[in-house]
Structures are given as C-alpha cells and as structure tokens.
Design brief:
This protein is mainly alpha-helical. It contains 4 helices and 4 strands; from the N terminus they run H-E-E-H-H-H-E-E. It is 51% helix and 8% strand. The strands form 2 sheets. It has a two-stranded antiparallel sheet with strand order 1-2. A two-stranded antiparallel ribbon has the order 3-4. The two termini are 19 Å apart. The structure holds zinc ion. Zinc ion (ZN) is lined by residues 80, 82-83, 85, 87, 121, 123-124, 126.
C-alpha cells in the first residue's frame, strides 16, 4: 500500500478537533459546577446560588457552545484532497465501531484521529496524515 498522503488542510483539521475537545471538556466541567449547587443554602426546596455561580455556569456553557460551533464552522471550510467534499461533515451517521465504555469515553475526550495523527474522509474513505 502506498504511503498515506499529508492532508493539505491539516492545520484546519487540528484546530477544528481541538475546539471540539474544548467544547466537550467544558460540557463535562458543567457537572462539577452543577454539583456546587448542593453546597449552597436552601430556602425550603429552592436553592439560591450566589451571582458568581450563575456567571461561572454561563462561562462553561459559553465555552462549550463556542467550541462546538467553532468546530462545525471550521469543518465547513475543509475540503478533502481527493473528493473535494467536506471530510468530517456527514448528514447520516454511520454505525460506530464496537468499543467498550472506557474506550468510548476516551474517544469522546481524546479522539483516536488526534492520537494517531491520521484520519479518514467520511465521504470517500481516503486516509490522510496530519503533519
Ligand atoms: Zn474524500
């Protein structure tokens, strides 16, 4: 098999993937922020968090939204070197390969494309290297 070519827009791909990671971490970090609610004084069944909690929560939600939408926005500018279509955007999801829960969690936060520095175009199946 011939050597895997380097993706011409590798930088764009990596930025897009990093933003997705950032968005996912921010989403995950919303959980401990929510858990903080348990430590605030209650008025009967109603928790009354201080104002800074609201800002903290909104900050993580904003980072999450910015990360995910930034990822999608950048992904629209990428073009596959072989087929010319967008290599990471698909309308219908393929059935994912079977993996354990831990693998799935690792895949969610640290995608294998970023670990192996290669990826496959979702449209034509061409493999590329991320330099
Ligand atoms: Zn392609």
């Amino acid at each position: 098999m011939s050597e895997t070519p380097i993706f011409r827009q590798a930088r764009l791909y990596k930025t897009s993937a990093r933003l997705r990671q950032l968005g996912r971490f921010a989403l995950f970090l919303c959980l401990p922020v929510m858990a903080l609610l348990l430590s605030f004084p209650r008025d009967g069944r109603v928790v009354q968090p201080p104002a800074w909690w609201g800002y903290l929560f909104l900050l993580f939600v904003a980072i999450c939204m910015a990360g995910i939408w930034g990822d999608v926005l950048i992904a629209t500018f990428m073009k596959c070197d072989r087929c010319g279509r967008r290599p990471t955007l698909v309308w219908s999801l393929k059935y994912p390969q079977r993996m354990s829960e831990w693998q799935a969690i690792r895949e969610f936060f640290f995608p294998s494309e970023m670990r192996s520095r290669t990826f496959t175009c979702a449209q034509c199946g061409a493999r590329f290297r991320l330099a």
